[in-house]
Amino acid sequence: MTRIAVIVGSTRPRRRTAITADWTLEVAQRHPEVKSGRASVELLDLVDFELPVLDEPVSPAFGHYEYEHSKRWAQAVASYDAYIFVTPEYNHSFPGALKNAIDFLYQEWAHKAAGFVSHGVTGGTRAVEHLRTVMSELKVATVSSQVALNAFTDFEITDPTLPGTITPGPYQEQSLNDLLDDLIPWAEALKQVRLAKEAAS
Description:
This protein is α/β, with parallel strands linked by helices. The chain has helices spanning 16-28, 32-35, 68-78, 96-103, 125-137, 170-200; strands spanning 2-8, 39-45, 82-88, 112-120, 140-150, 155-156, 165-166.
């Protein structure tokens, strides 16, 4: 089975990202390959790990973690074959909390696959542009299919200080299914790459 983590990429209170991640999980669990047992999808929320600003004394490239919060995060990320990053757009990029969480690790990300669900006043697309660059440095293959949820058309927001309600159009669910159609076979192929590397080492 291919294990996919839906990463909740914001730690802000009242974050719209949490309801977006819940929608992502709900739709993904209806995907035929998930229903058949070929893949599984679970939430991985940054809030649950309470990561400080990167405090490991040794580069994560060496894989030697001193602190328990780092070890717990590393173990969680390593257990998945692929990721769907759910991210808002902050000032033309993705949140610092997500960048910090990514930077804690190195090998745990390598030779895996990722897709993106973004949201914001322009759909969060610029945040994903930056995330793709970061993922390429970590040897993560990103799929081109993407879900971009617009704050004005895919949510009902009566108070801008509250998350509101997610109300995406039907084409957004199809976009997420397209993402999974690409992500699952890429994750399976890269799993073979990791196994070959382990056998050769």
